Amino acid sequence: MGDTPQTAPTGALTGVRILDMTRILAGPWATQILADMGAEVIKIERPGAGDDTRSWGPPTITDDGGEDHGAAYFHAANRGKKSVTVDMAHPEGQRILHALAAKSDAVIENFKVGGLAKYRLDYAALSAIKPDIVYCSITGFGQTGPYADRAGYDFLIQAMGGLMSVTGQPDGAPGAEPMKVGVALTDVLTGLYAVIGILSALRHRDATGEGQHIDMSLLDVQVATLANQAMNYLATGTSPGRLGNAHPSIVPYQAFATSDGHVILAIGNDGQFARFCEVAGAPGLAADPRFATNPERVRNRDTLIPILRGIMTGRSMDDWIAQLNAASVPVGPINDIERVFADPQVQARGMQTEPMTPEGRALKGVASPLKLSRTPPIAPIAAPRLGADTLSILSSLLDPSDFDMDRLLTEGVISDLPSGANHTEEE
Kindly report the CA angle at 188 between 185 and 191, in degrees rounded to 5? Predict the structure, then answer.
């Protein structure tokens, strides 16, 4: 584990040090989760520029004193980390990163395949320095295969991995075309799988003393998370199509218009359907052989859904939600993001939080969903200013007789946070 004292609040991963050479979303999402759980995450950034997403604004986010802290996108995936600026193209920068890797438990990077070999920062080079290192590579298509050298982006992978083929209105409906998901879901899922891989490899290292290379591919993750849609194809040989908000295997399980808005009706079994029919004043539907069981409702979807649409428009959204919830029938509104954060359940679960800056100012942020009874996530810490931790981290982890900080600063191998600098993109 990391060999310097930890001053931050303890969490399940306190004492684990992560050397983070990622940017954009998939890699930073993974390391943010590790930081939430107490790991020390040293985020390596380019001097003068940093992670690309530092400039992905507007919008920007301001603290409770009105100070601008830069792009909201960057803050979505980088809380709790320490920013160290190092020029990895410079031989001295490579020496610095070798020294940091030697004192880290895991390294994570999302460069193109082979992109770090020329800097001697690939798995072969770093495992020679620290044989038990856990090294996670995130790429679009993986380290092997005919597409390995291609760049991969979430939107592209959603298309190539099949997700867009089952998302969007069906052919013939207004607005019919394949659609991407409204967030970079493949990146987020890849970040989650990367965390699982890193923690599994650290468990193996603790048991055996062996490090290993984790090869994470966005395309692999997208194929794996096609879930039931993938199995539907493998079971039938027929590719599932787009159904809009409907479900291929459950009916009724989709959006319905009410007299004043839309609700999601998510009926998962025959008992729920029977209770829905009672509330709807149409108990005969549940007794009808065409609709009595879910397989029959799926087969007779085109007959049942128009009937239900006519029924649902007869009452208001709030009436349906109140009456169906009272009958234990799953139903809910389609919330915009403002309504999400105003929802009493979301508020009760503490999903909006206030990461604190080193100056004691509060930002707005989204909380970790992990709720562990013994080792919960640490108190949220704001995403760092570019280079804010360069000197403190390097001074504590590097041999002062081997690295001249003043010379490194003068030569631009590293950069310090300018005196009096604010959280802006011009840092």
Answer: 150
Q: Which of 187, 215, 220, 389 is catalytic?
A: 187
Query: Do 414 and 408 touch, CB atoms closer than 8 A?
Result: yes
Instruction: Please state whether the peptide bond connecting residue 58 to the residue before it is cis, i.e. omega within 30 degrees of 0.
Output: yes
Range of 280's domain?
A: 253-336
**197 contacts: CB under 8 Å, gap ≥ 6:** 136, 214, 216
pLDDT at 427 over 60: no
Determine the Cα–Cα distance for residues 151 and 110; give it in Å rounded to an integer: 10
**423 in any annotated domain:** no
Instruction: Note whether 303 and 171 are same-domain residues.
Output: no
* pLDDT tens digits, one per residue of 19-40: 999 999 999 999 999 999 999 9
- Given a contact cutoff of 8 angstroms between Cβ atoms, the answer to whether 56 and 223 are in contact is no
Instruction: State the sign of the Cα–Cα–Cα–Cα dihedral 145, 147, 151, 156.
Output: negative
In a domain, 238, yes or no: no
Query: SS3 helix, strand, coil % of the chain, rounded to 5?
Result: 35, 15, 50
- What is the average pLDDT across 79-87? 98
* The model scores a pTM over 0.85: yes
Here the CATH number for the domain that contains residue 283 is 3.30.1540.10
Q: Is 416 a catalytic residue?
A: no
Among 51, 46, 67, 59, which residue's Cα sits nearest to residue 422? 67
